[in-house]
Amino acid sequence: MLTRHEPRFLLGLLGMTCAVVPFVLAGVTRRWRTAVAVVIGAAATMSVAVTVTAPVADLLAQPVERVAFYEDTWATDPVVQGLPERQGLLIDDRCATRAVALLYPLLGPGQRRHAAYLACGATTQEVVARLAALDMRTVYAAGQVADMAAFDTRYPGSLFELVHSSTVGKGASAVERRVYELRPGS
User: Fold this and answer.
1) Helix, strand, or coil here: 119?
2) Among 90, 62, 68, which Cα is nearest to 81's?
3) Where do the structural domains in the chain lie, given as residue ranges?
4) What is the mean pLDDT of the chain?
């Protein structure tokens, strides 16, 4: 139990220690009893203060604005969140496991944006056909930086304009987010 690195696993020991506080006070000589009681009271007060303020401090550190919150928490691109809700969005996340969690902030503040997912491994022609079928022009592509070659192939410059690109994270877990617009006449 003491080999864990998180302090919450020490709560059991602390609780058992609190059960013996009256016996500790009884074992202390009468002239030291008041001083020991003050120290125990101060420790209890400090414990309550830390327990109450730690979660509040975490909540206060989170961004309050919707766009900043979703960028910080879910790594959703603020440019995509800022698009008008009437503009539909085709999402290409290379079949990521976080697909459902990613969808909510992309629907916009009023949750009215029409959004659809692209099938895994779709070709350029399938992307263009899906956009036409859904009457959309915008694609939001997000994936690992190492997978960006697949996006370059899927969204050639002759058919798609790269409107925005940004990277979040570092190293192997870095994610690149891109916004493509289907060129007129494509």
Assistant:
1) coil
2) 68
3) 7-61, 66-182
4) 83
